[in-house]
Amino acid sequence: MQLVQQAIAARGWLIIVFHDFTTGTPANRYQFPAGDVAKLVGLIASSGIEVVPVGEGVKRIACP
Questions:
Q1: pTM of structure
Q2: Residue ranges per structural domain of the chain
Q3: Which of 15, 18, 44, 57 is most buried, by CB atoms within 10 Å?
Q4: What are phi and psi of 61, to 5 degrees?
Q5: Has residue 6 got a pLDDT over 80?
Q6: 3-state secondary structure 20-63
Q7: What is the torsion angle, in degrees rounded to the nearest 10, for the CA atoms of residue 50, residue 54, residue 58 and residue 60?
Q8: How many C-beta atoms lie closer than 10 Å to residue 26's C-beta?
């Protein structure tokens, strides 16, 4: 959630990829609590930020 808030504040681009959902306490940085997915989606939705596929983001920043 902190990375989303940092991206909003910096008006930056954040690529969110999930590797593993867990119902318990995350054992490593690749696990995300399944119970927090709705909170993350709500944060993004309420922020008003635009969500685009990676390909569209790349086009917008003119990467080769």
A1: 0.74
A2: 2-60
A3: 44
A4: -100, 5
A5: yes
A6: EEECCCCCCCCEEEHHHHHHHHHHHHHHCCCCCCHHHHHHHCCC
A7: -20
A8: 13
